[in-house]
Predict the structure.
Amino acid sequence: MAHTVDQQTTIMKRNLPQVLTPLAASLLLGLQPVIAQETEAKDPASQPPLSVEETTSAKDKFVIPNPGELLQAASATIDLKAIVGKIKAEPVAATGSDAILAHSLGQLLADGFISLHAKDAALTKAIGKELLTIGQKLGADELIIAEGKKIGELVDAGKWSEASTAADAFRTKLLVNLAKDGDVDLITIISASGWLHGFGLISDQIQTSYNGDASKQLRQSDLAEHLAARVAKLPQGRVKDAANAAAALSEIAKLTKVEQEATISKESIQAIATAAKSGFAALEGIQEKK
Amino acid sequence: MKKSFFQRPSIYGLIAGLLFAATPLQIAPASVAGARYTAAALFLGLRNKGWTCRDTFTQGLLSRGGSITLATTLYAGNTYCLAASGCEDAYDVDLAVYDENRRFIGSDTSRSSLAVVYVTPRWTGTYYLRITMANSTYNGAHYVMQYAYRGN
């Protein structure tokens, strides 16, 4: 039934106490925690530390950062343009088994991110082209490939920051897309190969023109250990030597475990670069038997 | 003749349908989407201000009062926005950040389904993020942990 304006006003006036009482009560109840929350101040020194058990279980749920994060942070202390010359000299395998292609894809992702952060347009686009070809061979969807092509357009327009964000997103989507068939090993090969190759190039550069501040960016011991555990689970017959690759990652974990704000010595960085190269070579895919 | 309750198929079907719909049979993808949606405005604003978002995010289901701790690498030279958000069933999500020595760095314990902590790491290394479902519906709620960063 439709009410006129006057009738509605009368109904509201008649019901006002019934309406207001629960409203006031709920407001009071709702305000209580808000007041409590505003008076809460956390002094870091007075907070209890995280338990050892929690840190142990957390390492099983390690979240791998974007490649762009390290490069963004490192660009202030590492000459990325100097690494670009080394990238140009390294060819990749573009045919073979899925494991061979995954290893190449990992290498190209690392090379692509470094060239992008070094703002080398020609190299970024050339790597991107190779990367998309291999992605297609591994079964990436057309939509993902189209997203990859857009990065080239951003590079052409000189929108480096947007291109970097798009590259981070593209990498994640590509890995998720390639994992759709449930081949987790393939993702491990791409991630670990890319990380080892990129870490090797950066370590090599820090060692060539030693810089203590830059060496601090290599403190990624737990991340290396996490990748070592994943690589150790790779089945036989997919990569050349998974055990050796895992050992190389564990060696890197050991060498990069230094005190906070401590620098890593030039000798250790040389050893890190060597371990990264040997781990990357051991992860090379092999032609699977049909 | 008056029909009994069970002879009214439309009412019976409606009640059965409502009961079925209310039963939490499986994890609804919409809940994870809901948890991401809670932080969507924050991340959209950050993107517009030149922050880069990690497209990888951690998701899961937490019981009411339950918590989970994740580990990740954060790099000195960047500032991070770490955000834990809950789905439609979450009333209060908290986030606390610790360094590799298990020392407390910061937290957001406000009564909201979105908890945000900004961190500028002094050194590169492992950091721990503890997400707590402080309050939710009785059967818990979904959470999503998301990250954004920018160079200092």
